[in-house]
Design goal:
The chain is of the alpha+beta class. The protein has a domain of 283 residues: Alpha/Beta hydrolase fold, catalytic domain (Rossmann fold, 3-Layer(aba) Sandwich), CATH 3.40.50. Helices cover 18% and strands 33% of the residues. It has an 8-stranded mixed β-sheet, with helices on both faces. The longest helix is centred in the C-terminal third of the chain and has 20 residues.
């Protein structure tokens, strides 16, 4: 089928309209797929990256590309003045190179480092040096002498490096074991010595990293004498082959990946001395459980959270690491499931902690106390509910223990916004610190005196400011306003109602012109995410991307809606889809569609499209097999049957397969592939280690058996994000063609 080249799209506008647009806004550039994904626009938006506060609170460092475009330098802002200076020059950073070229079969290593926020550098506890992580190879950089020392010279990568609290040692994980090295002169020491590749010591496996939000599985004691770590035994976990098809003789890389109902890693906690001796800790006799969070209360005393397999019970244990004794001091249960939250915080005194819970219907913080003399002597006692109200505590940002004040973000007053607040531990004197409507994402110094504020709104671009908690802000970065550079239609918020009256939040872009317009009517594409743990309709610049603006310039409206089952709208909103993923989500999307068509009569109900990525891709398959209203759809990396996705995520929202066999059967999209309506493009990266290509293959096999035609696009060596400018440009060009053919021609 013939397609229209992107460079010729505007030629379909009337000549007078083109002349009028040029006359009115000669300064505006044209949005093209190339400008979106080949660097022009990304270069405009390049903000400071990797911001990290020094432990002494005197600097906030960041990585910035040099104005010449050659290399990156490490800069810092002085919070007292707001002025910046070079911390490590670009030529110094360029000298820190891996000893050998880092070879990867595909995009997985780079993609995962970016996705999971692997830090490029780490401050030493005394703020006098930096530890650089150059793709898994470590360099220690002394700030006073401006010299770097290479710490690791092996070809193997070294992950999760850390300073000891006294800055005398550096630890890291290599080949599934923990290693120790002095920051002074000295050789590295291997602390754990397991040779079984199924045993991971202090290393975060795929499941814990992706679905439990774990970023580290070992922690130094405050006195630098012990290391608390998680050991994972993955021997019984099934494998999935990731195949690099670009070699003459492909060899599969077998990754450990438990699917719904499969055996999970068997985990236990150990306390490691610097002599390499480990004492193991027994918390529970139940082997089928998770330990998603743990850490130190104070020297000699640790804590750990145990989550049961069904993920509806969280137990908090306090541990005497020297005796190995432990006590369950708090249990949180829910008849459905519990979401993990990073608001758990132990005060340095060791006798109080903050506990996040949605027990009253919204996520809030609760203050508990322990026995000061013996934390294991009794159960934790509830002191107060610190935050409360019909809104969500989103993140705990800072703790001023001396004055009994904490800092947190919430969506109070508008569930689409995020603001920074302070509050006393007794729940009094709640004060809003950030004021401008929109979304504020703070990064606070340990002292809580200063914070970096990342701010944007639906129509205001990213702005970064260095602020005093009780004072003024100094702007340190302002992204250009793309609305002044590119001619596009601004998005607008729109609200809908679910069939039960629940408020649904949405955003829409309505073009006023474009070649897709016919007789005053414009086609509409729905583009939801739809799944748990995520909120997409927010008062921030990221809610609508420039690709959606590009589509609007072609005369195609775009609608995004957050359905029930998504996050940050309270417990009842989140659990609405429990054990039945897909049905209520689609009902909410279709109800919103009907209301949008009624509210905006210029929308063409006969020219509708639907597309999404990941869960949004599953929503696309759902929409095109359970409705005949959409002429075309694009599904990028969909889950087609929940039996094929990982255990932790799937079982949280669908329960175990043996406990919900009917639900798994009912929600299988493979089983209803024969009902496909409309033209489908299905897309997958062949190295996707998150949503396996198996999902797409099983779905298209069912389409073939049902005699259904479809379009398919594979991306060799690409992971779940299908990254890289060339791949992204190719993908989005292909998406445009799909909707052009179905909705425009």
């Amino acid at each position: 089928m013939k397609r229209f080249p992107l460079a010729l799209i505007l030629l379909f506008l009337a000549p007078n309209a083109l002349a009028q647009q040029t006359q009115q806004a000669p300064q505006h550039k044209e949005i093209t797929i190339e400008s979106l994904y080949m660097g022009e626009m990304a270069g405009m938006m390049a903000a400071p990256q990797g911001m990290e506060w020094s432990p002494d609170g005197t600097k906030v460092a960041y990585i910035q590309r040099e104005k010449s475009g050659e290399g990156q330098a490490l800069y810092y802002f002085d919070p007292a003045t707001g002025k910046s200076a070079v911390l490590v020059a670009a030529e110094k950073l360029a000298a820190l190179k891996p000893p050998t070229p880092t070879k990867t079969q595909d995009d997985r290593q780079a993609d995962n480092r970016a996705r999971y926020g692997v830090a490029a550098y780490h401050w030493s506890p005394d703020s006098k040096s930096l530890l650089f992580d150059v793709m898994g190879h470590l360099w220690l950089y002394d700030l006073q002498s401006a010299t770097g020392t290479q710490l690791t010279e092996t070809e193997e990568t070294n992950v999760d490096p850390k300073f000891s609290p006294d800055a005398k040692y550096i630890t890291f994980v290599r080949d599934h074991n923990l290693f120790l090295r002095s920051t002074g002169q000295g050789h590295e020491q291997q602390l754990t010595k397991d040779t079984d590749k199924d045993i991971l010591n202090g290393e975060v496996d795929w499941l814990y990293e992706e679905e439990l939000g774990v970023r580290s599985n070992y922690f130094w004691s405050p006195d630098s004498t012990q290391i608390l770590f998680l050991q994972s035994n993955e021997k019984q976990v099934p494998t999935y082959p990731i195949v690099d098809w670009m070699t003459t003789h492909p060899v599969p890389d077998e990754i450990k990946y438990p699917k719904a109902g499969d055996p999970n890693p068997v985990v236990r906690l150990g306390v490691l001395g610097l002599d390499g001796k480990t004492n193991w800790i027994t918390l529970t006799t139940e082997p089928d459980m998770y330990i998603p969070r743990f850490g130190w209360v104070k020297p000699g005393i640790a804590w750990a959270m145990v989550l049961n397999r069904r993920q509806n019970q969280q137990d908090l244990y306090v541990i005497d690491v020297n005796s190995g004794k432990s006590r369950k001091v708090l249990t949180e249960t829910d008849p459905v499931y519990l979401e993990l939250h990073d608001g758990l915080y132990f005060f340095k005194s060791g006798d109080r902690f903050l506990w996040p819970s949605w027990r009253d219907g919204h996520t809030h913080l609760y203050l508990y106390s322990l026995s000061a003399k013996d934390p294991l002597a009794a159960d934790a006692k509830l002191v107060s509910q610190v935050t409360k109200g019909e809104w969500e505590m989103l993140s705990l940002e800072g703790e001023d223990e001396k004055n009994g004040v904490i800092y947190f973000t919430s969506n109070k007053d508008d569930d689409r916004q995020q603001q920074l607040y302070s509050i006393r531990l007794d729940g009094s004197h709640m004060t809003q610190i950030t004021k401008e409507p929109g979304s504020h994402t703070p990064s606070m110094a340990d002292s809580t005196q200063y914070y970096v504020d990342r701010y944007s709104s639906l129509v205001k671009p990213l702005r970064m400011s260095l602020c005093a908690t009780n004072g003024a802000c100094n702007e340190i970065f302002q992204a250009p306003d793309l609305a002044k550079i590119y001619d596009y239609e601004p998005p607008q918020f729109v609200d809908f109602k679910a069939e039960d009256g629940t408020l649904l939040r949405g955003v829409i872009i309505l073009p006023k012109a474009g070649r897709a317009m016919k007789d005053g009517k414009i086609p509409l594409i729905m583009n939801p995410y739809g799944g748990p743990q995520i909120q997409t309709i927010r008062d921030s610049m990221g809610t609508v991307g420039m690709f959606e603006e590009y589509m609007a310039k072609q005369g195609i409206a775009v609608l995004k809606v957050d359905n029930r089952g998504m996050y940050n709208r309270g417990r009842n909103f989140a659990i609405a889809t429990y054990k039945n993923l897909g049905e209520i989500e689609l009902k909410d999307q279709l109800a919103s569609l009907d209301q949008a068509l009624a509210k905006f009569p210029q929308l063409d109900a006969k020219r509708l499209g639907f597309w999404g990525w990941s869960y949004g891709a599953s929503m696309t398959l759902n929409a095109l097999t359970h409705s005949n209203r959409f002429k075309a759809g694009v599904a990028v990396a969909p889950v087609s049957d929940w039996h094929l996705y990982d255990s932790a995520y799937t079982e949280r929202y669908m329960s175990l397969p043996q406990d919900n066999a009917a639900g798994y059967d009912k929600t299988s999209l493979v089983k209803v592939a024969g009902n496909l309506s409309g033209r489908l493009l299905i897309v997958h990266g062949t190295s996707d280690d998150n949503v396996h290509m198996q999902n797409t293959l099983q779905f298209i096999n069912a389409l073939i058996n049902a005699g259904k035609q479809f379009d398919m696009q594979l991306y060799p060596q690409k992971t779940h994000g299908i990254g890289g400018p060339q791949a992204r440009m190719h993908l989005y060009t292909r998406i445009v063609k799909q909707f052009e053919d179905a909705l425009v021609k």
